[in-house]
Input
Amino acid sequence: MINAAEIELLQKALSTLAEGFEHLPEFTPGFDEPRLEEVLIEAATRMQDNYPYYHPQYAGQMLKPPHAIARIAYAMSLWVNPNNHALDGSRASSPLEKECIEALGAMYGWQGHLGHLTGGGTMANLEALWIAGRLHPGRRILASAQAHYTHQRISDVLALDFSPVPVDANGRMQVEAIAEQIGKGNVGTIVVTLGNTGYGAVDPLADILPLAQQHGVRVHVDAAYGGYFGLASRLADDVRRHYDCLGDVDSIVVDPHKHGLQPYGCGCILFRDPAVGRIYQHDSPYTYFSSAELHLGEISLECSRAGASAVALWATQQYLPLTAGGEFAGWLDESLLAARDFRQRLEDSSGYTPLLHPELDIVVFAANAGSADECSARAQAIFEAAARQDLHLALIKVPIELARAKLPHLDPNTGAVTCLRSVLMKPEHRDWLEKIMRILEACAAA
Output
């Protein structure tokens, strides 16, 4: 779990950091070392009560371990503890954040865009819809019925009308339904999800954009989960075309704390048009005086934000550049291939039926049984049995109309069926599929 070399590298980084403050009068904060050790050991013991998120046999929720360089850079920066709100509190880390934003926007072909890091995808999406509401006041928000639930909740917080759009058998927004909603009038923004939380489905952005542009509707892309996959080389052609037009949307959310190898919380909001910065403008009698440069707090709804997140992300992007064909992109390809391999193994199994074809690296599968209730009960039992063998999956309730595309014998009057779900977001997952399947087959046969 812990590589001793990381501790040694952290010590070297801290020594270098300390050199920058050697000119100050000696001051070392003290503490009660025996008592501190006692509490830390107790905390570490309590933390043992966790699922092994870092291990390939954790194939449940969207939990990807931070890269070593992100952990070390984040920890190192905590000895300064910068606050990336105003430059007074983040002389070094604010410029690093701006470099990160340039690199993230460049993934989508943007230059001169506006953006900043956030505490996570929820806050990033809130800012996107807040801007949308200010630009199109009183107009509706459209999003997939399978979009993250926070879009509807955020719309409620912002007092914006929200209309869910039905999905097709692959979990993607129906373009015809979007056109129907636009025909009813008063639509201001369409939220397009690239990699929805349940299925990893990619909404048909390339088909939605012309419709939105024709009617003067903004397009916001929630790519909190799938935002990095444009760098991958193994996307299917019908998925690739949607990533290829990301540069034409109005705003994008991506979460570096998902596939970007960062600790929580590190989200990001990007706007193609930097002029939206005028909407953020505000006065503060006690900040923004240390420099004529733009302070990040002047283009963010959040105030205090961890500068450590910017330091960790910058270090990671220096070590693993966001370039197609690079090492980072290769790891994304491994996850795509793992999901396809896993789906085929499940297809060949008598105990399971994979549902949607994975467009990214999420696989949803049913435990075979005669009825929806039996499927749900078996999925719950397998979920628990696998955990006892240290294989950790997730559960998801699938609307019956989606499940029946692969399991037509299920009663259409049943509301939903509980299925199993695996997020294969670690590059090592592909090498562990044989062992994962052995455990699953044993659980199905029990």
Observations:
- Residues 351 and 445 are 8 Å apart (CA to CA).
- The two ends are 31 Å apart (CA to CA).
